[in-house]
């Protein structure tokens, strides 16, 4: 079986690089055009610079916010910038059929956790008949898995981000389980039988198609450790055997492996060891108080306790551009911004990730009493369109979304989600999407909500 896994992985790498190579050999010159608008007024912006990354080529928008840009290869990456606005990064994998539209946001300045009270939200999908089982962002649209009658009547609905229906499609296989989005942005439909179907929208036929099928286990085995593609390199991460360390590297287009960064996880390993020794001493004292032949914990209980407290290093990796990435090492307490070779050019300390309930008694009392302070969720969310990074805090079922300043490591803005217990938060193009349960009537329906950040 290990040999088979290597062959499967090698085949997958060949497929990925072959796809990228076929795109990069696109030699025919093509011109794209579009318009750039202001985020608040939606008015066109003039004198916006659109630059092709890695080259000196670029253009500017005219007085109507319109631009025309000639490309000599695909894929490519653009940087869109204008004085007074945040930079925007955009990756082009294929020539679009329609004009592009970009929205720029006014620059924000570092503030001390400003809480945005003017909440702008809307329901993207809310139905008395249907409930949402899952959703994903597919290209620039929303793909919903909706159902009624205990999953007996299930459909795939593709919507614009404003909620307009593009297509309604039957499932490739019953019954539904969830969606899975891989590192390339491909969305896969997962059935309860354990099969995975890649979802692709055919713009000519106006329907979803499922060109590739595999098993869910195989899909995870192939792509779960992969991070992203940048400059013809496929980046990946590996956890050490004990789960506390982490290695980051890439495959080049010759399928060679190069490691660029290693974390030992010494801080979290020491903390785990101290907690484990404390628990061991506490349990030994309790056992000594009992009869010699009636131990409080069996060997299986000890093994289960060890697995329950086992923690891996929390250090997600984020792509910030074709030549830049960031590692959020929450376990050690810093952000590392580095180039594609792994050379660190900025290290930023962070402290917001420290949990409020490190104390054991505080953790126990929080089960019975309301939490007084906001508690960090341990997660980060990436807006791939703006290259912004957010995290969330929880308190008594409510959730706050807070933006991380990559220059200072501080939290600069905070947005309250107006509904309790939101599920599956995704952030795209400056908007947060989440599922929320609509309670009422004979059934509880899940709806999709959009919150403007």
Characterize the structure shown.
- The chain has five helices and 33 strands.
- It has helices at residues 2-24, 216-223, 266-288, 299-308, 360-368, and strands at 30-38, 49-52, 58-60, 66-71, 76-81, 88-92, 100-104, 114-116, 120-125, 131-138, 141-148, 153-159, 165-169, 176-181, 187-191, 195-202, 207-209, 213-215, 226-230, 233-239, 246-251, 257-263, 317-321, 324-329, 334-338, 344-349, 375-383, 388-395, 398-404, 411-416, 423-428, 431-438, 445-452.
- It has three domains: 2-104, Carboxypeptidase-like, regulatory domain (Immunoglobulin-like), CATH 2.60.40.1120; 114-224 and 351-452, no CATH class; 267-308, no CATH class.
- With 453 residues, the protein is of the alpha+beta class.
- The radius of gyration is 24 Å and the shape is globular.
Strand order of the largest sheet: 8-30-29-28-27
How much strand?
A: 35-45%
Overall geometric form: globular
| Number of contiguous helices | 5
Quickly count the domains.
3
Point out poorly predicted stretches. 22-27, 293-297, 356-368
Helical content (DSSP H or I, runs of 4+):
10-25%
The biggest sheet, with number of strands, parallel, antiparallel or mixed sense and barrel status, is: 5 strands, mixed
Distance between the termini: 47 Å
Please state the CA-atom Rg, rounded to the nearest Å. 24 Å
Tell me the number of strands: 33
């Amino acid at each position: 079986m290990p040999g088979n896994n290597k062959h499967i992985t090698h085949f997958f790498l060949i497929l990925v690089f072959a796809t990228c190579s076929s795109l990069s050999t696109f030699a025919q010159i093509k011109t794209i055009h579009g318009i750039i608008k202001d985020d608040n007024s939606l008015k066109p912006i003039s004198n916006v610079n659109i630059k092709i990354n890695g080259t000196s080529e670029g253009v500017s928008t005219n007085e109507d916010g319109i631009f025309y840009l000639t490309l000599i290869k695909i894929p490519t990456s653009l940087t869109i910038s204008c004085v007074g606005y945040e930079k925007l990064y955009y990756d082009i994998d294929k020539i679009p059929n329609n004009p592009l539209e970009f929205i720029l946001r006014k620059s924000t300045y570092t503030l001390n956790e400003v809480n945005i009270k003017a909440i702008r939200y809307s329901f993207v999908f809310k139905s008395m008949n249907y409930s949402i089982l899952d959703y994903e962002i597919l290209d620039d649209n929303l793909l919903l898995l909706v159902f009624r009658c205990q999953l007996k009547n299930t459909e795939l609905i593709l919507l614009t981000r404003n909620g307009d229906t593009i297509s309604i499609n039957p499932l490739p296989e019953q019954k539904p389980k969830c969606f899975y989005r891989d590192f390339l942005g491909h969305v896969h439909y997962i059935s309860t039988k354990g099969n995975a179907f890649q979802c692709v929208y055919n713009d000519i036929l106006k329907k979803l198609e499922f060109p590739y099928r595999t098993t869910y286990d195989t899909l995870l085995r192939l792509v779960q450790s992969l991070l992203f593609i940048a400059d013809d390199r496929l980046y990946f991460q590996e956890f050490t055997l004990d789960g506390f360390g982490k290695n980051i590297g890439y495959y080049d287009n010759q399928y060679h492996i190069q490691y660029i960064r290693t974390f030992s996880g010494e801080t979290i390993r020491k903390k785990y060891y101290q907690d484990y020794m404390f628990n061991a001493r506490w349990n030994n004292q309790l056992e000594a108080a009992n009869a010699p032949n009636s131990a409080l914990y069996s060997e299986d209980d000890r093994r289960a306790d060890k697995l329950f407290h086992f923690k891996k290093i929390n250090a997600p990796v984020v792509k910030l551009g074709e030549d830049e990435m960031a590692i959020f090492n929450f376990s050690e307490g810093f952000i590392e911004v580095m180039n594609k070779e792994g050379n660190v050019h900025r290290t930023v300390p962070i402290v917001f990730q420290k949990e409020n309930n490190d104390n054991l008694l505080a953790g126990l009392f929080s089960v019975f009493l309301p939490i007084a302070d906001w508690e960090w969720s341990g997660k980060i969310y990436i807006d791939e369109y703006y290259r912004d990074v957010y995290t969330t805090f929880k308190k008594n079922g409510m959730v706050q979304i807070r933006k991380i300043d990559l220059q200072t490591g501080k939290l600069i803005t905070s947005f309250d989600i107006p509904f309790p217990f939101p599920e599956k938060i995704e952030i795209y193009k400056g908007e947060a999407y989440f599922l929320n349960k609509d309670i009422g009537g004979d059934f509880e329906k899940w709806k999709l909500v959009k919150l403007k950040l």
